[in-house]
Known about the structure:
The protein is of the alpha+beta class and about 90 residues long.
Amino acid sequence: MSLKAKLEAIVYAPETPVTLDQICSVGQRVRGRRTGRRRRSRGRSRASVLALEELVADYSAADHGIEIRQVAGGYRIVDQAGAARRRRAHLPRA
Length: 94
């Protein structure tokens, strides 16, 4: 699984926003497995930040009903503005 796909999964799954430091720790662990190094470097992983920026751009540019947004000091997947309204318009009324 690519780094970008892993980041997408961790941003999607939790109920609370995922901080940039948490996101970068995933990138550092992935990179460490590839290089065989057990020790993680400190600081933010440039690869993780770039992958996150790509994901944010992918979701905001494409025709999605969701987007990755920075909220409450972290990132999470949320409905795009107006998506909930469009969904309700297509649901049958009880």
